[in-house]
Amino acid sequence: xxxxxxxxxxxxxxxxxxxxxxxxxxxxxxxxxxxxxxxxxxxxxxxxxxxxxxxxxxxxxxxxxxxxxxxxxxxxxxxxxxxxxxxxxxxxxxxxxxxxxxxxxxxxxxxxxxxxxxxxxxxxxxxxxxxxxxxxxxxxxxxxxxxxxxxxxxxxxxxxxxxxxxxxxxxxxxxxxxxxxxxxxxxxxxxxxxxxxxxxxxxxxxxxxxxxxxxxxxxxxxxxxxxxxxxxxxxxxxxxxxxxxxxxxxxxxxxxxxxxxxxxxxxxxxxxxxxxxxxxxxxxxxxxxxxxxxxxxxxxxxxxxxxxxxxxxxxxxxxxxxxxxxxxxxxxxxxxxxxxxxxxxxxxxxxxxx
Length: 354
What we know:
The protein is about 65% helix and about 5% strand. By secondary structure, the chain is mainly α. It starts with 6 loop residues before the first helix and ends in an 8-residue tail after the last helix.
């Protein structure tokens, strides 16, 4: 039976098994389960013998042939099978989606990390991925569509970004400011400090506009990103002193300078005992951060404490990760209409229009 199958039919069989088991999270499945999938496939082939006993024997033989000839399915334990590598499992799942044009079913999994490679593989296999990336964008926007408070955040995000003088892509700038709204997202940031440069960026912002990584000049975005970093992460006092001192040299507004200087003067002196400094981090840092936050809000319209619930924070994380996946698809070797690509990029991290 197996040797009479064409290469395409063999791939079709593996694809059907791949997607079915992947959807069910069955990375390891029983031999009888695999044989049932095989029997269901071969019963529809021309000249197939549909006698139940013959189908059972044929499905057993096909499974053993796949294992012996290709090694794509392997017996991990007695009567327990899996794909020989997760990449093969993901590949055949994606191939089945492409074959059946099952984009709608795929985008339902936009927030599930285990589907990430399947999305990327699917986009790469499609002759034209316009429909898939549009559906992804729509599904991502739906995640936040019903939350009024988060929509207010996106309105602020757009207004803030539009007020910044920059040559960078606005979607990249929006993603950078979006990071500051949720402390869970700070693990998505990269930072680099040395004598010649200071970068506090989101990985996603760099993917949207690679100029950020190549040439990150000192400007209002760099000032904002560092200040947001200072209130978002607990750091040592020496770090606060050094970077506030550098900020003073970059801020041109004298009133703003004076306010930052007063904030810096409230930091304990580095000459004090280490235990005293450590105690300040525990007891007084949060109070100091709130003072810095108020200065940021007044002068830069950033640093708001949105007081999101844990559910909203999780939703924002899903939204950010889903947008990152969408950008990765746009940046992959998939074929997308230039106008579609540009329109999706231009509307990343924007509120839903009422």
